[in-house]
């Protein structure tokens, strides 16, 4: 089974590129982030035409997450995280697909730091950890994936000094991410690339793509049941260089049956 995550940065603007990638690479299940579209304008029929069924949790103008399943609709388990009844941002969706629990997320950016947006980021990460603990207790094969907006290590960024003031690299952000790993989850891309140097995001500004000034913030975390089945993990880097591309590129894992 091939499971991918892709921050599409506006599903209406990037739909041709997204459909192109789906048809060329044929992942089994895909988590999407930053739909930037309300529920009623999600392009469900476009995915159905190429063999994918979808569930989604949209929001007008920003945020928004979805899960696509090839040939079979994911069975929704949860949308949104518990722990903050006032949080109305569409950042989390969870489903079962062919025996695997798939959790797709778009974690808050946290900038500017310090401030309320950074506090919200850290609180959201604690709520995520609580949900992941619940999933762990179910002992189901699970992949938690998406745009975490955390650069875990200095070798996950082109220039750690230049990014040192960003919320993505703050010790509190990294500590919250590392607590997930300490709970027993496996960072799939890191396992396959222990020396780092693999990027999943390149800003539109300052020629970042052309200069390969990127960093890694899109992650796939595996439960023990899926980590044991890990065969490969990778980044579809070339898609970032296509016309009208997202500033992120797809990231994927392949699990043995």
Automatic annotation (TrEMBL):
It comes from the Bacteria. Its cofactor is Mg(2+); Mn(2+). The record marks 248 as: Interaction with DNA substrate. Its EC number is 3.1.11.2. One of its GO terms (molecular function) is DNA binding. Residues 4-248 form the Endonuclease/exonuclease/phosphatase domain. InterPro entries: AP_endonuc_1, AP_endonuclease_F1_BS, Endo/exonu/phosph_ase_sf, Endo/exonuclease/phosphatase, ExoIII-like. The record marks 218 as: Important for catalytic activity. It is an enzyme of class 3 (hydrolase). Probably binds two magnesium or manganese ions per subunit. One of its GO terms (biological process) is DNA repair. Pfam families: Exo_endo_phos (PF03372). SUPFAM superfamilies: DNase I-like. Belongs to the DNA repair enzymes AP/ExoA family. PANTHER family: EXODEOXYRIBONUCLEASE III. This is Exodeoxyribonuclease III.
């Amino acid at each position: 089974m091939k499971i991918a995550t892709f921050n599409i940065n506006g599903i209406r603007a990037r739909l041709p590129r997204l459909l192109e990638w789906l048809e060329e690479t044929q992942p089994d299940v895909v988590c999407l982030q930053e739909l930037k579209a309300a529920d009623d304008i999600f392009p469900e029929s476009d995915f159905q035409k190429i063999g994918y069924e979808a569930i989604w949790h949209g929001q007008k103008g920003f945020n928004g997450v979805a899960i696509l399943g090839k040939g079979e609709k994911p069975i929704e388990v949860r949308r949104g995280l518990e722990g903050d009844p006032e949080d109305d941002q569409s950042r989390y969706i969870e489903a079962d697909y062919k025996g695997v629990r798939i959790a797709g997320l778009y974690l808050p950016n946290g900038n500017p730091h310090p401030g309320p947006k950074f506090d919200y980021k850290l609180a959201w990460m604690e709520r995520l950890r609580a949900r992941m603990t619940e999933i762990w207790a179910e002992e189901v094969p699970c992949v938690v994936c998406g745009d975490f907006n955390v650069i875990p290590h200095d070798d996950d960024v082109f220039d750690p000094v230049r990014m040192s003031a960003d919320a993505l690299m703050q010790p509190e952000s990294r500590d919250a991410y590392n607590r997930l790993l300490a709970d027993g989850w496996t960072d799939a891309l890191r396992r396959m690339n222990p020396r780092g140097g693999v990027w999943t995001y390149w800003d539109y500004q300052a020629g970042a793509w052309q200069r390969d000034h990127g960093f890694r913030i899109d992650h796939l975390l595996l439960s023990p049941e899926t980590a044991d089945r890990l065969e490969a993990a990778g980044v579809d880097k070339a898609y970032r260089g296509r016309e009208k591309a997202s500033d992120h590129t797809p990231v994927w894992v392949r699990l043995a049956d």
